[in-house]
Amino acid sequence: MSATKDLRWPCDTCGAELRFAPGQTELRCDHCGNVQKIPAAPESARQYAMGEHPLALGLRDDLPQTAMEEAQTTTCPNCGALVEFAGAGHATQCPFCATPLVIDTSTNRQIKPQALIPFQLDERTARSAMSKWLGSLWFAPNGLVEYARKGRALSGLYVPYWTFDAATRSQYTGQRGEYYYETRTVTVMVDGRSEQREEQVQKIQWYPASGILGRVFDDVLVLASRSLPRDYTEGLEPWDLSALQPYSADYLAGFTAEGYTVSLADGNARGHELMAKAIANDVRRDIGGDVQQINSINTAHSAETFKHILLPIWMAAYKYNSKTYRFVVNGQTGKVQGERPYSVWKITFAVVAIGLLIAAIAYFGNAQ
User: Fold this and answer.
1) Of 32, 75, 199, 265, most Cβ neighbours within 10 A?
2) Which class for 217: exposed (0-12), middle (13-18), buried (19 or more C-beta within 10 A)?
């Protein structure tokens, strides 16, 4: 996105602003209904989108100029989100925390997105999924559920992610535990008299274990935003990354995109953490036995590459009783995550009802 001019998508029929139509490859005019096709990406763009940047070059800030851009952004004064706007997508409040925003002309040099997953679900479908999810929550305040159902629009947001590829070689040491059983005699009381019985006691025999494992990681996904809790976005997984399309600003028409606020280095560190968890599971399987202990894992990473991509999320930030509740909907699958509000009155009523039920059971039990 250019820092020197505001991208616009005027309708070629009436001049009004076009918006990307989720689930389609076209732009639509809300004013006259005109439809304009998004041109198919050339093969060179597809190869670039599916390609990878060498991680070492990115960490040295030594990527070619064609991989960089100057983006026009607005920083939320409350949560620090780095928000970009496209065409009719100019908003008056932060999509993450509902704080009013003033559009400024700040620019931010950053790595250009290579690819994105276009929105597949429209706003009405996403709101329906969110309302259904809210309605399924026990002890959620009725007022919040109704407030969310009143038709207030959700924000369509392209959220930044890093993906990392690597080949790993891990040397480990540990122990393999195998169960065995011993019989012992114990004394128990039966009808006031002591009796001796035999019982089986489980024990573990440990054996040393070591080995070398290799693994190739492809598209390890790391959130590149600090504006949403990680458990929200990880709860939206899995994403079908085979649906990635070459980045085109046309897909942003009428939507908002967030610039990344997690650096490539920090994202790579998180990627290594995710790889380490997978490698530890590989080690446990390799050790075998009934139980395992891992003493050490030393991993070397090679052939490391990365991509910067955007993924579609519908988001609502509702202020209710002076508190902001945030809900996110996967714009590809409709999966919902969000904060878990509780109604004190519902909880109190449930506790009282359970107490009365227990008292009634005890009363009728004693009466018999």
Assistant:
1) 75
2) buried
